Amino acid sequence: MASTITFIGAGNMAGAIIGGMIESGFSPDDVIATSPSDDVLAPLRERLGIRTETDNATAVAQSDVVVLAVKPQIMREVCEQMREAVQARRPLIVSVAAGLPAEILEAWLGGALPLVRCMPNTPALVGAGAAGLFANDRVDEAQRRLATELMEAVGLVEWVEDEALLDAVTAVSGSAPAYFFLMFEAMEEAGVTLGLPADTARRLAMQTALGAAKMALASDQPPAELKRNVMSPGGTTERAIAHLEQAELRRIMAEAMTACADRAAEMADELGQR
């Protein structure tokens, strides 16, 4: 039997996941999106053919899965307003809100609920996301599979068994698109210095990153071996890699990612106290 899935919030991430779900075979009739404003809902309803609702409790009362897709800063208010409906229905809760621990979300919703926390990233908006998922002890195997299907609609899914590891997921994938955008920015600037037009340098850098990622995903060799395969002794790539190693790129990345994970943990504490 099909599950009815409600998205509380109809912003960009919710829209991306819903679009991926419909494209991968979910029926629009089984999907509900909510927002206080029908002006926000109308484009999703018209584009994807899903059901929409301006009252969260009404939508929850029909749902087997409730996806929390509102900003963390308003999550407590939203959860508490629909607590009674959630407790009456007891659906699977899936949160895509950054920084809010499962225990806190569950408490705001009245407790004793199956809950999955998801750390997605923005490439989900183009169907190329990467998400880390954590399930509490009340999530059964069928619910775990359904949560996987939802997020695989917009990219890769990896489960972690310790919720604290979602901070590491934030460092490795959640925040990481910005690392690559910075790299593109730096490569474009260097390309211009070397004489290329800015748009040419930008396109070459981006396409090269796309190609490198596709090669790495398609290969059974580790990145270190793929790197060596490109490096001819005494050649241009070897010279560039040697310079990056001497500049301690590995240390810089490790420190940046540790700072990211530390901030994720701090934000969880801050948001949970609101």
UniProtKB/TrEMBL annotation:
Protein name: Pyrroline-5-carboxylate reductase
InterPro entries noted in UniProt: 6-PGluconate_DH-like_C_sf, NAD(P)-bd_dom_sf, P5C_Rdtase_cat_N, P5CR_dimer, Pyrroline-COOH_reductase
Recorded family membership: Belongs to the pyrroline-5-carboxylate reductase family.
Top-level EC class: oxidoreductase
Annotated Pyrroline-5-carboxylate reductase dimerisation domain residues: 163-267
Pathway(s) the chain acts in: Amino-acid biosynthesis; L-proline biosynthesis; L-proline from L-glutamate 5-semialdehyde: step 1/1
Keywords associated with the record: Amino-acid biosynthesis, Cytoplasm, NADP, Oxidoreductase, Proline biosynthesis
GO cellular component: cytoplasm
Positions annotated to bind NADP(+): I8, G9, A10, G11, N12, M13, S35, A69, V70, K71, P72
Gene Ontology MF annotations: pyrroline-5-carboxylate reductase activity
Function: Catalyzes the reduction of 1-pyrroline-5-carboxylate (PCA) to L-proline.
Catalytic reactions on record: L-proline + NADP(+) = (S)-1-pyrroline-5-carboxylate + NADPH + 2 H(+); L-proline + NAD(+) = (S)-1-pyrroline-5-carboxylate + NADH + 2 H(+)
Localization, UniProt: Cytoplasm
Native source organism of the sequence: Halomonas urmiana
Domain of life per record: Bacteria
Gene Ontology terms describing biological process: L-proline biosynthetic process
EC number, UniProt record: 1.5.1.2
Chain positions recorded as NADPH binding sites: N56
SUPFAM superfamilies reported in the protein's UniProt record: 6-phosphogluconate dehydrogenase C-terminal domain-like, NAD(P)-binding Rossmann-fold domains
Pyrroline-5-carboxylate reductase catalytic N-terminal domain ranges (all copies): 4-99
